[in-house]
Structures are given as C-alpha cells and as structure tokens.
From TrEMBL:
Source organism (scientific name): Pseudidiomarina salinarum
Full protein name: Phosphoribosylglycinamide formyltransferase
Keyword hit for Transferase: yes
Gene: purN
Keywords: Purine biosynthesis, Transferase
NCBIfam families (alphabetical): PurN (TIGR00639)
Organism phylogeny: Bacteria, Pseudomonadati, Pseudomonadota, Gammaproteobacteria, Alteromonadales
Enzyme class: transferase
Amino acid sequence: ARIVVLISGSGSNMQAIVEACEAGRIDGHVVAVISNKAGVRGLDIAAEAGIATEVLSHKDYPTREAYDAELQKLIDNYRPDLVVLAGFMRILTADFATHYHGRMLNIHPSLLPKYTGINTHQRALDAGDTEHGVSVHFVTEELDAGPVILQARVPVFEGDTAQDLQQRVQTQEHGIYPLVVSWFCSGRLKLTDAGVELDGELL
Ligand code: GRF
C-alpha cells in the first residue's frame, strides 16, 4: 500500500510508521511526508529516510477551502491508498474529509469521545481523571469524531504534569498507530456503512 503522511511537527508517529514499514510489520511504504509548516523536525526525519517531502503552507492560501483543495491535489499526485494524519494540526474541510472517506486515519491524544480538540492532557488533569489515553480513528467530516478503531489507556498519577501525561501517551501512540496502519494495509480494516470492521467483524 502507498501511504502519505501529513505532519505539522516533530513527526515521532510518522517515524514509528516508517520504521514499521522498513521492518516489514506494515505491508506498505510511506511515499511522501507533507507538512503545513516548514523547518519542522519530522521533515528532516523523513528526508533522512529517503522519503519525498513537501511543505504546503496554509499561510499562502486565503481560505481553508483553497488550502485543502491544493493539499488534496498534492496528496493525490502520490496516488495514496491511505492518508495518515500524524500530528497534523489543521481542521479539515468537509470536502477534503469526504474525498478520503474510509482511507484516512488520525491519532488523537484522548480517550475519545472525551476531549476533542486541543490541550487534551491538561483537560484530563483538570477533570481529575485517573485514566487517560489515545485513540486512532477514521477521519470523517466532524473534528476528532470519526469512528474509533483502537485506543490505548494510561494511568494518571498524582502530581502528574501535562508533559508527563503527554510522554506516557506518546509511548502508546508509537505502538498503536503502526499497528492500525498495518491492519489497513493488509486489507483487514475497513470503514463500511455499518461501522469499522476488522477481519469482517464489526468493532
Ligand atoms: C501526538 O501526540 C498526536 O496524538 C497529536 O499530535 C502529536 C503528534 O506528535 N495529534 P508527533 O508529531 O507524531 O511527534
């Protein structure tokens, strides 16, 4: 399978997916890494791995619609089977989400449906949660609301800071995201009208 990864920052999830491809744990390869921000570490990691990189700055476009239309063109030049959002910090237009329906994944650092949007770690702390985590989901038109495929849970300890939680969650991210991508690439995972199916069974 041909995978395009979208990032905005450090790219550690993208790196975990690239490594899983190289190790043969994912039946696919990352054909391009696209960032909406120049100069981020994830672009260096991708370039060092010999992967094509692209920067498409949202600041060069007057509207979200104009940006997403151009982004879609750029992505589709690479003819992806799967689009992976890995720390891509943009709200997507409905047209964009619809175009990649059933073939775009996102990772969100909360136990969805809790805490869509940003600052999830601090919000879990503020709420006094004893458990927190991360979700991988199919992307649909609604922000962070697509059907969940897999979650990982972490404990919240007394005295934890948002940064502690972020690190604990990220360790889990690097396990579950490559796993879900591997399911998709081997044809085991599908989004149907009934919902998410793994090996033909509804999740
Ligand atoms: C991750 O914590 C992910 O859950 C969130 O953004 C972060 C991206 O980290 N959506 P990285 O760029 O993969 O290191």
